[in-house]
Amino acid sequence: MKPAETEVVNIMAEQVVVCPKLSTNEDEAMRAFDNGRDLDVRDIDDATNARLLKVIDKNLLPLLCLIYGLNFVDKTTLSYASVMGLQTDLNLQGNEYQWLGSIFYFGYILVEYPSSYLMQRFPLAKYSSFNIILWGVTLTCFAAVNNFAGAATVRFFLGVFEAVVTPGFTTLTSRWYTKHEQGRRVGFWFSCNGVANVVGGLIAYGISRGVEQHGASIQPWRILFLSFGLFTIAVGMAFLYYVPDNQWNCRFLSPADRVLAVQRIRGNQQGIGNRHFKMYQFKEALTDPITWAFAFFGIAVNIPFGGITTFFSQIIRNSGYTSQQSLLYATPGGAFQTIVVILNGIISDRLQQRIYVSFVGMIIGLLGAILLAALPLSNSPGRLAAYFLTQASPTAFIALLSFISTNVAGATKKTTVGAIYMVAYCVGNIIGPQTFQQSDAPRYIPAEIGICCCWGACLLDLFLIRYLYCKRNAEKARIRSAPGYEKAEKSEFKDLTDRENPELVYVV
């Protein structure tokens, strides 16, 4: 038997027999070195690397993009429903609608760390699929609610099951792509928020018009929840079947390519996962100042997001448009966001300057917020354009998501930092809808001024994060250039944290 054939047979055997037991300090990627196999990432030629990247993109990105779009549209269905008769049909009083916007994030925040721990402990794709299917079932149940209590209960559990999506996809991206590919890929799947805004608005408009012209046995907003919920269930089942937990149980790669797919990400200095909880990494995450700079940003940037996501249909309607027009006219904002986010990912990876590039989107969003606060309700085109500009603001939020993917190493630390960031995301989204008080309608001046202040603070926080990363890169460079320094063998696959591994260079 030829050597190459022997290697393939040995690799294939790992799929049908019990794999050698790894130590708690080793990453799942260490299986690539069984039977003496070892390749430097430089040994993988450009053609092979391009071929692998194309196969991985083709099989992972479409489902990641589709599900992340559903993740957004499922949350914003409430905003569409608010101008389709939901508030009247459920007899919502006072600030009860605002609380429906916030209570989603109480469910999210309650399970965020437990869910992140389980995501590390159990197979990533299977655990994610379980939650996706259950969130689809929960969204479908919203079509049956008849009062505030029922709606609040469904919204709470919707948050519980959607909590896995963003941290799960961030982790999945870090396991399959090199650090200079990740910013673009995170941008791709996050950009589907904008696509979902376009598609969701068009579907909501179509249902509203259809019911108006032809009638229906149930209210149009109930049809909307049923449609999105059932489709989410179907996509969750597809995710369960197609998406692998890691390279070792991947259907779309040959046994030899599975090893190459692991070897090509050696430069990330992170590996593909370790299922053991490590207390020292947990403590490092809690004592790392960058963790809390992330947390501050997560709260500050999402107070505006939470308010706008819940109230964008009403913001447009209060600017002089009809309810149906507010559904239709929201869609260009989604298209604008998609274009900005994709360009942000491509340019930031090409220039290797994620923070500076993401600044541009934040500044455009801040300009839109300032115009919303300044323009009178009578200036309908100006306020609509201002709303569109606010949709460029997620670029910096995406940059920090990609930093968790590329710059935070150690499985337990990555899980912990990701959970803290998403808890902060929830806190911001809980506060956000509450800034739009009924007593301030239809102008909502305090909320609009608050959006400007929050995004201004975010810009300063981004400067701080970049400064800290650059300072640490300089310290690591001094360590690597010191006399007698030697890189630890296979350090990239030993589940080291970013601070204890001198070879990990932070992306900025």
Provide a brief overview of the structure:
The chain is an all-alpha fold and 508 residues long. 71% of the residues lie in helices and 0% in strands.
Number of E strands: 0
Report the portion of residues in β strands. under 5%
Mind telling me the CATH class of the largest domain?
Answer: Mainly Alpha
Oligomer: single chain
Mean pLDDT value: 85
Structural class of the helices, strands and pairings? mainly alpha
Q: What is the number of helical segments per DSSP (H or I, 4+ residues)?
A: 19
Low-confidence stretches: 1-20
Rg calculated over all Cα atoms: 24 Å
The biggest beta sheet reads: none
Topology:
Elements: H1 3-13, H2 46-82, H3 86-89, H4 96-121, H5 124-141, H6 148-162, H7 165-176, H8 179-214, H9 220-242, H10 255-263, H11 279-287, H12 289-317, H13 323-329, H14 331-351, H15 354-374, H16 380-390, H17 394-406, H18 411-434, H19 445-481
Helix pairs in contact: 2-7, 2-8, 2-9, 2-12, 4-6, 4-18, 5-6, 5-9, 7-8, 7-17, 8-9, 8-13, 8-14, 8-17, 11-18, 12-13, 12-18, 12-19, 14-15, 14-16, 14-17, 15-16, 15-17, 15-19
Explain what you see:
InterPro entries: MFS, MFS_dom, MFS_trans_sf. It is a multi-pass membrane protein. GO terms for molecular function: transmembrane transporter activity. It comes from Aspergillus oryzae. The protein is mainly α and 508 residues long. The protein has helices spanning 3-13, 46-82, 86-89, 96-121, 124-141, 148-162, 165-176, 179-214, 220-242, 255-263, 279-287, 289-317, 323-329, 331-351, 354-374, 380-390, 394-406, 411-434, 445-481. Helix 2 packs antiparallel against helix 9 and helix 14 packs antiparallel against helix 15 (354-374). The radius of gyration is 24 Å and the shape is globular. Mean pLDDT is 85; it is low at 1-20.
